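Why do we care about 3D structure at all? Because function follows from shape, and shape follows, mostly, from sequence. That is the central idea of this module. The next example makes it concrete: a single protein chain, its amino acid sequence, and then its structure expressed as tokens.
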Amino acid sequence: MVKSLFAESNSSAGARTISDIATQRGMPLSRYRAGRIMKACQLHSCQQPKHRYRKAKQEHVVIPNHLNREFDVMEPNKVWCGDVTYIWVGKRWAYLAIVMDLFARKPIGWAMSFSPDS
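And the structure:
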């Protein structure tokens, strides 16, 4: 049962979660016994690692704020904006940078990288 619950969770459930699910399904199981069974079956919980920002080695250049939070644009290709976010890709974090036209609210271009460089 522990193997099937572990497989249901896509290898992400630990002993506590497996014991909770087994108990809810009518088979009382403590987390310690679940842990021993998982160890005997060589089942290891695989959790997604947390993202940590890296410290910058140099200060960023101060960029003037030309918009002053006026995001209503009357013509296309007059104001573009961009943002960078991180997403989980396979077995590591990747950075996604997007540039969009504020008039159409659609992406102009995008790029992905495994490092948060410019």
